[in-house]
Amino acid sequence: MAWFSWMCLLFMLFNTCSSANSSSSLSSRHLCHPDDSSALLQFKNSFYSSRTIFWEKGKDCCEWRGVTCGKVTGHVIGLNLGLSGLQGNIHSNSSLFFLRHLERLDLSDNDFRGSPISSKFGGFESLTYLDLSFSNFNGAVPPEISHLSNLVSLNLSLPDVRLDTLSFNRIVKNLTNLRELNLYTVDMSSVVPDSFKNLSSSLNTLRLSRCNLQGKFPESIFRRPNLRLLYLGYNRNLTGYFPKSNWSSPLETLRLSYTRISVDWHHVTRNFKSLRDLSLRNCSFVGPYPALPGNLTQIMQLDLSHNGFGGQIPWSLLKLESLTNLDLSGNNYVGQFPEVDRNLTSISSLYDFSEKQQVVPIPRHLTELDLFENLLNGTIPSWLGSLPSLEVLSVGSNQLSGDIIEFQSSHSLTRLDFSDNKLHGLIPRSIFELEKVTELDLSSNNLSGIVEFEKFSKLQSLSYLNLSSNHLSLSFHHLSNNTWPQFSILALSSCNISEFPYFLRASPNLETLDLSHNKIQGEVPKWLSNVAKDSLRQLDLSYNFFTGAVRQFRWKNLRYLNLGSNSLQGELPIPPPSTFFFFISNNQLTGEMPPTICSLNRLQILDLSNNKLSGKIHQCLGNFSQSLSVLDLRKNKFDGMIPMTFSKGNILRNLGLDGNQLEGPLPPSLLTCRDLEVLDVGNNKIHDTFPNWLESLPKLQVLILRSNKFHGAIGNPKSKFPFQKLRIMDLSHNLFSGLLPTKYFENLDAMINSQEHELKYMGDGYYHDTVVVTIKGFEIEMLKIQTFFTTIDFSNNSFIGEISNVIGKLKSLKGLNFSNNELTGTIPPSFGELSNLEWLDLSSNGLVGEIPGQLTKLTSLSKFNVSENRLVGPIPHGKQFDTFENDSYSGNTGLCGLPLSKTCGTHQSPPPSFGQEDDLEHGNGFDWKVVLMGYASGVVIGISVGYLVISNGKPNWLVKVVQRKQRRRTVEITQRRA
After folding, report:
1. At 906, is the pLDDT very low, low, confident or very high (cuts 50, 70, 90)?
2. 552: in domain
3. Residue after which a domain boundary falls, among 408, 442, 476
4. Does residue 796 belong to any structural domain of this protein?
5. For position 312, which CATH number holds?
6. CA–CA separation, 255 and 301 (whole Å)
């Protein structure tokens, strides 16, 4: 009975407890406070979001997605709407601010359309967590944020928001409980760095990257007792030092990339013993940089890229057992990959300073290795292909040779970059088995063989593929139903493609497509304009054999379009208004420029050169003041006037109008083009006097007025420092008269002493400046202009008087042509100081006297012409003068000596050679090699044209020779990375 009584009692207690729990459960379903429920519904109606779509009236708001309620009061205490697709404005009267009991609020990753951060956010007195990051707020951070004294975490990462000193100091003073402060991309340029000294001592995370901070960052922050994560990167004017005395920091993440904080490697390795993530990309290192990792035994991610480090790579870093990510890209490291010992597994002393070749254990833990853009040579070691954890391998832009390795067990690879090396052979079979790879770049190597595109069929995660500029032959013959809808970037330039890849019909996410420099014939497929209508940004079909007319483009977000060097016909097609760069040069387009071109007010480069376009140039092109940098209309049939108005504040850098039928004067409004570097109006019908007013343009480097109707004397400069940067000046084939402009020659600073010695070309990004100049008697189109190329051509005018000695000051001059004028007097001996001169043409004038012996010092001179003058005396001998033929001197009856048949008398002896240099054919100038492409009676004749060759043996610039009145197009082979 006792046992039975106990059972009854327990049964009664169980029923009572169950009833109570049931009652509690029922009541918990109806805890939501009605005021809060109403506020949330009003807030929902202001936006559309998938997260709030099921918020419905009459249902308990505490059960709604993203909503958390207090168990006792039923008030909403948490609202998580991060990444919810909210779009619209948040005003100060928003019902959001009725939720007075909020403790956590996350509105990150939405679009509030530039709404200001309302001061009402400061009214959430209980808030401990606030995240407004990346939600398109705008304006200033209100000082009322400092009222949130209970905040533990604050994230205001907003690129269009600014924080002034007053508001920040209030935040620092009042938010004493802060443990996480994230102000990434907030404009804090007015905040004094010393303000950070007063931050909460409990702070463990401080993110201040890309905040425009400037000044000296306080050393004390590095010694904060609780600080674990410190992000200061990309504040390019932020300076500072590590503390000098011994200290210890608990920092686990330190990112100082692109700052001017002085990094002492010794301090880093001695005092930051807890570091796991260290980013020192492009930093200011002081003192020696050791090869050994020091005490950073726990490091997992190490970025030392873009610091100009040289010598051998510190391969001993691979011994660090915790290291997973190593980035040493953008340095000057040399040498080869190390040997590995598969039996070594620890960090014990494995480095032998007496050995030239390091030996390291195979880094099985490594997930990312980035050695891009160094000077590594040798072959790629096979052990890289067997790392089981490797996800990213980037060794592009080095000097590696040999075959690409096989990847045997690296099934985790997602990104592989072997571009811009000297690799050869076939693409290994294992590449086509990397099923997880998303990015594959094998471009700019010497890879060969026929590649059936279907081999990539297993790579269904592949979104970036670049095979450009190899010796591959790509075929799409065997593709059946294979598609790659995930493709975003596809670069197949110079792949010997003969057919358009039709699988692209099913590539809706394509952003970049490069099929340039191939052999594709026929019309551009009409279906192409329907592919990736919302995503396509770059399209390059240049240097193919496309024909027919192109009528419409449907891509809404297109930025770059290149259809140049094909055989397209019909009227000029107009790309979408979103276009920044439009190239359609070297085609057969006809007709006038459509007025719809005026809708392209975001254009930065417009290249319509080498077509058959006619009619007027629209005035709107001169009014594109905020964007247009290059306007290239050369070699068409445009007539009428050059646009008379160029807007103030314009950024026009290159105006190319050569080879049209333009008339009238140069428009004075060109003076508003303060960024103008190239002005080429040659071969038109322009009727004007010399435009002295252009001399004040501060950046003008190329002035081509050739073959027009310019007339009159040039006169003297109107400004104190005229044409300071001018390097190419061509006034030939006009009607200029009067004396040579000696005062101008005195001020051509860029020709007097050029500061440019590196192999660089004029241009900006996508566009290389092009110009036609007369070199050694032939018109040559330089498809790239070296920044140290200088020449003066005043030929075929009516200049009179003597040649001034002042020209001898132009020591950077490569070419000088005063031929076919009415010049008198003698050849100045100062010409012997033109040490870089490669051609000198003074023919068909009235020069008298002897040829100065000082000219034999010109060891770079390879073309010399003084024919049809009145020169007398012996021809100098020695050096370059022993290479010139009779035609250099013909028409001067008073000259004698070799190479002429007329000998000099006993009282006449050739002037001696000046200088002791050995005979040089080229000197320090251009290496002119013979490659003539002229035409005479159907016979091809060779002449001297040069090009420099870069280290990999590929032409780095090309020229085009054009005989007068007969021109032949030469195609420049350009390699552009996608």
Report:
1. low
2. no
3. 442
4. no
5. 3.80.10.10
6. 11
Give the residue with greater pLDDT, 932 vs 590: 590
| Dihedral, 356, 357, 360, 364 alpha carbons, nearest 10 | 150
H or E element, residue 317: none
DSSP structure class, residue 833: G
Give the H/E segment covering residue 341: strand 339-341
- Taking residue 571's Cβ as centre, other Cβ atoms within 10 Å add up to 15
Bridge partners, 239 (sequence order): 216, 260
- State pLDDT tens for residues 129-188: 999 999 999 999 999 999 999 999 999 999 999 999 999 999 999 999 999 999 999 999
The predicted structure's pLDDT at residue 916: 37
Query: Domain of 437?
Result: 295-442
Question: Is residue 302 in a domain?
Answer: yes
**In 10 A of CB 755, how many CB atoms?**
9
Rounded CA-CA distance 835/831 in Å is 9
Please, which pLDDT band fits residue 344 given cuts at 50, 70 and 90? low
CA–CA dist 334, 610 (Å, integer) = 45
Strand partners, 548: 568
962 contacts: CB under 8 Å, gap ≥ 6: 772, 778, 779, 780, 781, 968
CA–CA distance, 152 with 176 (Å, rounded to integer): 9
Domain closes at, from 398, 425, 442 = 442
- Band of pLDDT at residue 915, cut at 50, 70 and 90: very low
- Residue 456 is encoded by which pair of tokens? 């990539």
- Segment 937-950, tens digit of pLDDT: 222 223 233 333 22
Report pLDDT digits (tens) over 791-812. Answer: 999 999 999 999 999 999 999 9
| Domain count across the chain | 3
How open is the CA angle 329-333-334, to the nearest 5 degrees?
Answer: 135
Q: Taking residues 772-786, what's their average pLDDT?
A: 88
- Return d(Cα 346, Cα 326) in angstroms, integer: 18
Element (H, E) at 590: strand 590-592
Q: Of residues 57 and 939, which shows the higher confidence score?
A: 57
Say if residue 822's pLDDT is above 80: yes
Q: What are the beta bridge partners of residue 522?
A: 546
H-assigned helices in 343-494? none
* Residue 373 to residue 78: CA distance in whole angstroms: 49
Predicted TM-score (pTM) of this structure: 0.82
Q: Among residues 607, 906, 888, which one has the least CA distance to residue 768?
A: 607
4 Cβ partners below 8 Å, 6+ apart? none
Token pair for 602? 């975001």
Two tokens, residue 931: 């490659």
The tokens for 504 are 């692209």
Distances (CA, A) of 608 to 623, 658, 968: 18, 12, 18
Asked if 875 contacts 889 with a C-beta cutoff of 8 angstroms, the reply is yes
Here the tokens at position 834 are: 């033109």
Residue 19 scores a pLDDT above 60: no
- Sequence-distant (6+) residues with CB within 8 A of 396 are 372, 373, 417, 418, 419, 420, 421, 441
Closest CA to 260 of 311, 214, 314, 198: 214
Whole-angstrom distance, CA of residue 243 vs CA of residue 153: 28
Which residues, at least 6 apart from 327, have a Cβ–Cβ distance to it below 8 Å?
A: 281, 302, 303, 304, 305, 368, 370
- Residues 310 and 539: their CA atoms lie apart, in Å, by 38
Q: Is residue 104 part of a domain?
A: yes
HSE-up of 966 (CA within 13 Å, CB side)? Answer: 8
- Please measure the distance between the N-terminal and C-terminal CA atoms of the chain and give it in whole angstroms: 90
In which band, very low, low, confident or very high, does the pLDDT at 929 lie, cut at 50, 70 and 90? very low
The identity of residue 465, as a single letter, is: L
Helix/strand/coil for 14: helix
CA dist 508 and 535 (Å) reads 7
**Average of pLDDT values for 884-902?**
92
The answer to whether residues 546 and 520 touch, using CB atoms and an 8 Å cutoff, is: yes
Give the pLDDT mean for 408-425: 91
